[in-house]
Design brief:
Blueprint: H1 2-32, H2 64-70, H3 75-85, H4 92-111, H5 118-129, H6 131-163, H7 168-178, H8 183-195, H9 200-210, H10 214-229, H11 233-257, H12 259-282, H13 284-292, H14 296-318
Helix pairs in contact: 1-2, 1-4, 3-6, 4-5, 6-7, 6-11, 7-8, 8-9, 9-10, 10-11, 12-13, 12-14, 13-14
Length: 322
């Protein structure tokens, strides 16, 4: 019962401290906010007020205090791009608050364990707090990989439609209607941007920005070059699709050859953990010396840091980018 009460008290204290820090930051920003320009045109003279905007507002968070605080940091735009590339409609405020809540709960739980050093609690809280963002990055990678797998077939579809006499806009609309997500969503967005009056250059640039894949940049460059110089776009897209398939085959061969290195790194990382767990059950007093000795906790922390560093180094070595 005492342990549960300690956990609750530490969690509440951590969350209140974070809330006080946010409010303090908001107060500082409010005090430094410049006054509105005297010569600005009142919104009432234009026939509408600021409470009814004509365009969709891309807010960082529904909590105004948190949104103003996030707007001061540069990493927010990168996080917003990653969330959009993952195919999620989450706001940056929602993700950051989830990270803060997860880190606070983890810190409260680890801080209540007397046998753990404080650095381990802080490190565990940072790792736990990064889990929501890591999940978004995993979703982003999976979505982009799926898009890359669908893209050669999409280029073949566009090539056949152009050779059959359909204009490029109609071919893109048919592709968006008959393909599967995420390809269909991105192509539909590009087609709708063009229909709303945006130029092909801007629409294709937006597609390349939304989907940061090298193949999409090649596709956008080929379409824009053909629109300026002329030529048979169907043949260009067909050759581009063939090149993408060949590169995908080479990437698969490299990944197969590097599988041995990835498996080796995984085995070398898990062996110390498995041995420690087995020894804790077979002979609990054997590892108890490290937990009870003053320098034992530091040795465990150093060993864990070396283990994580070695795993990351092995992954970096075997990760061959093409």
């Amino acid at each position: 019962m005492l342990v549960v009460s300690t956990i609750i008290v530490v969690f509440v204290a951590t969350f209140l401290a974070a809330a006080v820090a946010v409010l303090a930051g908001w107060a500082v920003m409010q005090s430094r906010e410049p006054a509105a320009a005297e010569g600005a045109t009142p919104s009432g003279l234009l026939g509408f007020d600021r409470s009814t905007p004509l365009l969709k507002q891309d807010v960082l968070s529904t909590i105004s205090v948190w949104a103003r605080l996030l707007a001061r940091f540069d990493f927010v735009q990168g996080m917003k791009s990653r969330i959009a590339e993952a195919g999620k409609a989450w706001s940056v405020g929602r993700v950051t608050l989830t990270m803060l809540l997860t880190g606070s709960v983890t810190l409260a739980v680890l801080w209540s364990l007397d046998w753990l050093p404080g650095t381990v609690g802080l490190g565990g809280a940072c790792l736990a707090g990064s889990i929501p963002y890591v999940y978004i990055l995993r979703l982003r990678t999976s979505r982009l990989n799926k898009f890359e797998d669908q893209f050669p077939e999409a280029l073949d579809y566009l090539s056949r439609a152009l050779r059959a006499g359909h204009p490029f806009a109609a071919s893109l609309e048919m592709l968006a209607s008959e393909s599967q997500p995420p390809l269909s969503l991105e192509m539909r967005t590009t087609f709708e941007e063009r229909q709303l009056g945006m130029s092909w250059q801007q629409a294709l640039d937006n597609l390349a920005n939304r989907v940061p894949v090298m193949d999409v940049s090649f596709f956008a460059a080929a379409v824009l070059l053909q629109s300026r110089t002329g030529g048979k776009l169907g043949e260009v897209l067909g050759r581009l699709a063939e090149t993408m398939r060949e590169r995908s085959m080479v990437r698969g061969e490299i990944r197969a050859l590097s599988t041995h290195g990835r498996v080796t790194g995984m085995v070398l990382t898990t062996i110390p953990i498995v041995v420690a767990l087995v020894m804790s059950f077979v002979n609990p007093g054997y590892l108890g010396i490290l937990l009870n000795h003053p320098s034992g906790k530091d040795l465990i922390l150093a060993a864990a840091a070396c283990l994580v560093t070695a795993h990351l180094v092995i992954r970096k070595i075997v990760n061959v980018k093409l």
